[in-house]
Each structure stands twice: as C-alpha cells, then as structure tokens.
Amino acid sequence: GAAPELPDLPIQYADFVAWQQSEANRSRLDKELNYWRSRLGGELPRVQLPTDFPRPRKQTFNGAVVEFAITEATTQCLRELAREHAGSLFMVLVTALNVLLYRYSGQRDLCIGTPVANRQRAELEPLIGLFVNTLVLRTQVDPEQSFTGLLQQVRDTVLEAQAHQDVPFEHLVEALAPARDPSLSPLFQVKFRLENAPAENVQLPGLRLERQPQQLTLAKLDLSVDMYETSDGLVGGFEYNTDLFERATIERMASQFAELIARLVDEPGAPIGSIGALTAAELERQRFAWNANTETYADTSCYHQLFERAVAASPESLAVIHDGVAREQLTYDELNRRANRLAHHLIDRGAGPEAVVAICLPRSIDLVVAWLAVLKAGAAYLPLDPDYPADRLRFMLNDAGVRVLLTVSETALPGAAARVDLDRISIDDLPDDNPAAAVRPDNLAYLIYTSGSTGRPKGALIAHRGLVNLTEDKIRKCDVRAGDRVLQFFSFSFDGSVPEFVMTLAAGACLVAAPAASLLPGPGLRDLLLRNEITHMTLTPSALTALPYTAFPKLRMVLVGGEAPSRELIARWSEGRRFINAYGPTETTVNASMVPCGNGHPLTPTLTPSANKQLYVLDEDLQIVPVGAVGELHIGGVGLARGYLHQAALTAERFIPNPFALGPEDARSQPDDSVLYKSGDLASYLPDGRIRIIGRVDQQTKIRGFRIELGEIERVLEQHPHVDAGVVIARDHGDDKRLIAYGVASVDDPDEPAKVRRFVAEKLPQFMVPGALVWLPELPLTSNGKLDVDALPSPGGRAQRRDTSPRSPREELLAGLFAEIIGVDRVGIDENFFDLGGHSLLATRLVSRLLEQAGIEITVMDLFEAGSVAELAQRIEQKQYLDPLLGAIEDDDEREEVAL
Ligand code: AMP
Ligand code: MG
Fold this sequence. Notes:
By secondary structure, this protein is α/β, with parallel strands linked by helices. The protein is built from 25 helices and 30 strands. The strands form nine sheets. Strands 21, 22, 23, 24 and 25 form a five-stranded antiparallel sheet that branches. Strand 18 (557-561), helix 17 (567-573) and strand 19 form a beta-alpha-beta unit. Helix 4 (89-105) crosses helix 5, helix 13 crosses helix 14 and helix 21 packs across helix 24 (869-888). The longest helix has 20 residues, at 247-266. The relative contact order is 0.07. It binds adenosine monophosphate and magnesium ion. Magnesium ion (MG) binds at residues 495, 561-562, 584-586, 590. Residues 495, 561-562, 584-586, 590 line the site of magnesium ion.
C-alpha cells in the first residue's frame, strides 16, 4: 500500500523498443551488419566435435551439466596474463576454449557464441527487460602461433564484436542467411559465457547463501561452457546435449580444459601445436599403459633359423600338403633338404644378403620350397604373380634390381636376365645341409609392392627382425601347435600369405596349399577345409562372408584381415572357436594388431598393438588425441619397413621421426622406436584403450581385401592418348564395393570405352581394373571447383549397336541376375560377366542365386568358361539335357567314349 520510493526511470523499456525499431537505428544497424558480413559471410565452419551418438536429424535439447573448477592460484595467473596483454579474463578463457576445440575437432576456423549484456548506455542500466544479445567470435587457429599470439587475435575479435554488439542476433541470422541444417543451431554450436556480476555479496538476514550446481536437463547447443568467478577461483560447467555425448566424455573434456588452462598459463609462449589436450594422467596411460606389450622374441635369429629349429624338433612331421589335382606332401625333413639344395644353387648364382630374388610361381609345393630357399640363401624374396600384366612385372623386376628370378619355363617373363627355371635345373647333386648364409636380423627378408598413388606401385622393404617378431606373436596369439593344419589362402604376392607360411613352419604345423580355383569361397573351399581338417585359417571378410557355413569340427581359429569384419560375421564365426581381427599395413610387417572378437570378447572389431609394436592415434600436430576424437593411426616398434625402395620422398612422408622416442637409458624405452609409420587410417580410442578404425585420410581403398590407390588407376587411364582426365571411384554395392572409372575423352568414338578398358587391363592387375568405364563430356564440379562425386552418373550397360536383349526366359533370368549382382542397370546377352565388373566372389554369389532361385546348378568354372548371358544359357541347356544323359550311364565303361 505504500507509494514506490524508487526514483522515476529516465526511459522505459517500451522507449528502448521504439528506438531499436526506428528508421535512424535501422540504418545504423545496416552499417554494423556490414561488419558482421565481412566476418561471417560465405560458408561458415561448424564445430565438429566427435559425438558418442549419431546426431539426430533434428536438433534436440536434452542436456546435463558437468561442473569443473580452476584453482585460485591459476585464476590469479590468468588475470595477470590478461592484464599483461591488455585483455580481459574473458578473452583468455575464450582463447583457451578455442585451443580445446581445435584439439578435438582438428578445425582451424572456429566460431564460438557468447552472450553480452548489451546495456551500452547509462540510461539502460536500471531498466527491467531483455537486452541480452549473442555475439559470434570467429577465430583462426594457427598451431605454430603461441597462446599469447592467439590471445591477441581473440582480443581484437572480442573488441570488434563488442563494438558491433547491438545487431540483434535474429537480425544477423536473417541477414547472413546461412545454409540451414535442422540438426544444428545456426552460426555456432558451442557457446562460452563468463559471468562476472559479483554474486558473492548478497547477504540476507538470518540466512546462509551457498551456490548449488545447476540441475539442468536442457541444453541449448551441442556444448555451452559457463564460468563464473568466486573467491576460491573460477568455477564452471560444461552444459552438453545428452543425445550427442555421454557424461564420461564431457567429464574428460572438462578436466582436460581445466588442466589445459593451467598448462597454457605456465607456458604461454609455447606454440599451440605443442600443447595436447590430454591430462598428464591420460597422457601416461595412452602413451605407455595402452602400449605395454613388450615380449621377448628371437631377436638375434633370422626366420629360416626358426624353421630349421622346427625341422630338428620333428623331421618326420608333415610340413606341407598341396591338395591339387594330385595330392602332394613333404615332411619337414624333405622340405628342408629340397630348400637347402635350391638355396645352395642360389648362392652359387650370387644370391646373398640384400640381394633380391624374385619368385614367379603358381601355387605349388615348389613355391614353398623356393620361398624357403631364398631366405636360407640369405637373400630377400620378391613375390611376382604370374597372372599380372607383363608391364607391371617388368616394372617390378627392374625397380627391385632382381638378381635371380625363380620360375618355371612356361612363364614368359619379359627381359628377365638371370632366371632359374625350376623344371629345367638339376640340383639333386647339391648338398642338402643348411647353408650358413651371413644374414643378420636387420637384413632384408622380402620386398612387396603395393598400389601407389603416383601411378606406379611402391615396394616396401621388410627385414628378418620384423618377420621373426611376427612369427612368434602369431604362434602365441593364434595358438599354433605341432600337428595343426593351417590353410594357405592368400596369394603369395600379398603379405597376407606371410604369416600363413611363417607361423606354420616355425611351429611344426602343416601348411595346406591348393590351386587358386579350390580356394574360391564356395562349396569347393568348404570341402577343402573339411577334407584337410584345417585348424587355422585367415580369410578376408568378403571371402569369409561368401564361405558356406557348416560345422567345421576341427577349425579352432579363424582370423580375418585386410578389412574390418562386420559384427554379424564375427558373431557367426566366433561361436565355439576363437576369432581374431587382424589389422596391419604391409609397411609394418603384416600385423600391427590382433584382437580376439566374439566368443566372450566384444563383437566390435578393434585394434590393440601387437607384440613390441606401438599404436598412437595422433592429430595433425602429432599430439595423442583424446578418447573419442578422430586422428590418424601411427604405428611404431619392431617390424617397420625400411621404407619404399627408390622412393626417398615418399618414405620420408610416411615414415616420420617418432616424437615419442625415448633414449635407451629410459627404462620405458621400446626397441626400434626411432620411426613411426603413418598408416593413413583414421581412428579413435575407445575409453578402454582399444582403437576403432573409422576411414581413410586419403584415396586408398580396399576392395575384397585388395589394397588399391584410386590415383594409380586414374594415372594409368590418363596415359591413354584419348583420355584427357580420369576419375576412379569405389562405389558401395551391397556389402561390396566396385570400381567405376570416368573418362573425359578427346575422341568421339562409341567403342572407345571398351578400348580404353582393355588398355587399362593390360597395365593393371585384374583387381584394379574398373568394372565400368563411363565417358563424360566433362567432369562435374561443385561450386567451389572440386569434383562433384555425387553428380557422377551411375554406369548403365554399355551402348550396343545390335539388339542384345534376352531371347528366352532363361536368358532373361540370367541377364536380370547379372545386372543385379554386378550392379548395373541392364546387361546385353553378349557382355561378359567379368568385363562388367564381376569377380570371383560375385561369381560364387551368382552360382548360389541361380540354385536358390531356379534350381539351376552351375559352377564358378562354368562362368569363367561361358561368361556371357548367351553362352551361359547355352551351357545350362547342355548341362540340363546332356549331362543327365551321361550320368545315366555313369558306371558304364563306355562313358568315356560317349563323352568324347
Ligand atoms: P595392406 O597393406 O594390404 O595390408 O592394407 C593395409 C590397410 O588395410 C590398412 O591400412 C587398413 O586401411 C586396411 N585394413 C587391414 N586390415 C584391417 C582391419 N582388420 N580392419 C580395418 N581395416 C583394415
Ligand atoms: Mg595387411
């Protein structure tokens, strides 16, 4: 009932609103808008923090808060630092938050929102009403700059932003009209607020006041950091969206921020690139504890000596079986003697440490003998696939400076000087004792070429030390015992074959080899596994997926490698046996990680370092990334390649000085820790230290386990005189991928794509030949001039001159299945399954689909021999009507005659 005692206000909120909307103010704001346009116009970066859950399509606002605090001492230092640089506490904290966001996102262009009181005139001070506005602070982080350097930039940004603070935020959004994404707030996704209104001074009679943590269940943004000053230092909270982040993630982030601030204060002159996000405790754990896997191994031996020990232990055990047309086998003693004779012959031909001996042989017992002989001679082997194009073989022979070529007389190898044809030499008189080559663990054991983005394959140089370490680790982790049967699945020219050979023949187990056709993942392989009582096998995930599942009572251990297996695949094959996800680039001696999955272990395929190796997920400044953040996987330790042959620049790019190397005097130092290999794989840490592979930093891709640089195919395409520009993509096709090439032609000839494809097939191995080649008038580009991958057309069947539509229901069925399985729109009846991009795995799929869908039984071999719809239809006809006829007189002696 009393009259108000307060003095009248000079103006009211309504006056302010009227002024804000006045013409005069509007034209003033237009000028201010120009400032914001210059800062925020064009495409705005969005801060991409690694989220724990996939981002909902539409932005949500469920939230929680994690509290944190900065000690009074550090807060004091922050204030001084601010003063020294003519800035405010707010500016120092914004700068620190930018550093944290840079560490998590790797982005150098960052926008942070911040609220301002926006009561810029004395008359507005006492008004009740909403004045608060939001400013966008955009910062460019340069890792070479110091914290104080960045602070200067932030200071200028903040001052300018404050000078232009009264453009209402909604007005700004309207004017900038940024591309809206319903899953994100516009302009910024992270907010920072420092509340410096003195809150401590409130006194109420008879009451004690205390600050309580906020119990918010709301989050306005991905992340908002709120801080306020108390007499005990700064306190604050990370308010986060609970649909994006787990609490533990934000707890880590908050304690990292607190520790980061302390470190920045300690060393404000250090380059930002040198300041990691991890707390000291996290650094210790991620650097050492998660890499603690030192194992002793025969570090003074070379691989063949491990084999010779196995020979001495059980000379009469079976060492190798070749399950081919005829079944051949050798005991350890027989294998050793044959390898020794050949080794003595090779030594006579000049083979020895650091000399390269090429081996170009089909899958056979001889291949195993030759492989051992080269190592026993002290030389390094270079595997050559007899099916590779001559061009490529010639390149490898020359590049590697091959001393001797081990082959058989039927292979026509271009210009190979010193060749030894195994079917022509007679070496039976040579001694069969172990040669004593002066080869040391650091000498070269083998040289394997992988696809190279410059258009030429690159040879990785691997020494015995890594091979021996691999052997022992494999035997331990895969539990290989004397008498076990190990499948030899991988092609000799890929390093997947290396562990199959080395672990088997050092453990006294038996290697089971077979011709390539029996290894196609279909019923044939299933029978091979059963017949030979295979205990251990390693397949690519795609091959394992295609292998028909039955009970394999003897199969104890299944490994997959080359690509990440799916959880379903792991679940199916790990039941009742051990299953290992093997990971590793050729450059690190096959395996850098072997992790058991399923059967009591998690189903997610992950990585942990193999024996005597280290794995680090690093950002661009080579700082270990926090759990959850994405970085590049770097691999160190025993077994790193020496580098790439004759490629010093590429070697220096991929094999970098190890920033974590410790001197030998440090108790925690690891052997061979001077270099790290950059794998090119994007990865992140799980909270328990296991690592997840996420993708690639580059254009390297894997198709059915084959490692392919798309750039290599593109460069070969462009070598054709009629191709001006080539682009190759690996497009998903079901659970598979297929290569599609696009060429911009300088010649208008409808037959040209086929000719170019043949040209490419003459230069590249089959797995690198694109299934389809599409002619384009020009490459589609995005508005900023990059290739617009989404605008590339999908390939149809090739243009045909004559009518090639199916002529019968059977052809129709086949044409439909071809198109579906290969992933093209239409298939003409004369087009070859393999030319269209079909490969052996797709062939097995076609075989089983035909059986399921139409009860028609064909083999993969039928498809190889009758590859077009027309031919295959004819062959099926023959099988259905002629073969039963033959079957009826199966046991008749005349059968052979009839067949003839
Ligand atoms: P390669 O040198 O042919 O063994 O290829 C090595 C590359 O294959 C790696 O850098 C990965 O990109 C990929 N890779 C191999 N094994 C795996 C795996 N188990 N999980 C995911 N990626 C893999
Ligand atoms: Mg590998």
